[in-house]
Amino acid sequence: MSWKLNLADLSARGWSKIAHHASLVHPSGIPSYTPDLALLENLLSAASRSGSPGMTLEGLAAVHADRARNLPRPLSGFHAQVAFGECAFGWLVMRNPQTSVIEVDTLEQWFGEERLPEVWEDSRRFGNTVGLREVRETASQV
Question: Where is the signal peptide (predicted)?
Fold first, then answer.
């Protein structure tokens, strides 16, 4: 038996699906297979004006909170947890371990181009294990 997952599967919306209306770069309420340029620009500009060399966990949390605050109705409990996990997992996997930020180029490649960033392939892929407990603990800070 073969099992395959692709980005189209992940973008499906519904009560039992992981796509949610507070996505950092995908619009609310409509099917979306590519990042929304205005939402992407908002994410990248938040990282640029943070005073850090990239996006902090607090910065991701602020962008997420702004998205959630502007929804017509709150996320379900399940989708709220998925949204917190999106921020936590993205930060844990893509951050620079020396600076604890996600550089703007990395953000653009991961969230904008929806591909693994070059720096991740070079230096962060191996030896960077992220467990569900760590994601959950980090998500509680979002």
Answer: none
Using alpha carbons, select from 63, 121, 113 the residue that is nearest to residue 94: 121
Say which DSSP state 13 is in. B
Residues 119, 63: Cα–Cα separation, whole Å:
23
Cα gap 120→99, rounded to integer Å: 15
**Residue type at 120 in one-letter notation:** W
For residues 78 and 53, give the distance between their C-alpha atoms in angstroms, rounded to a whole number. Answer: 32
Phi, psi for residue 105 in degrees, rounded to 5: -60, -40
pLDDT digits (tens, 9 = 90+) for 2-49: 566 555 555 566 655 666 677 888 887 777 778 899 999 999 999 988
Dihedral through CA 83, CA 88, CA 89, CA 92, nearest 10? 170
pTM higher than the cut 0.85: no
- Structural domain spans, the chain: 33-139
Token pair in block for residue 83? 């949204």
The count of C-alpha atoms lying within 13 angstroms of the C-alpha of 16, restricted to the half-sphere facing its C-beta, is 0
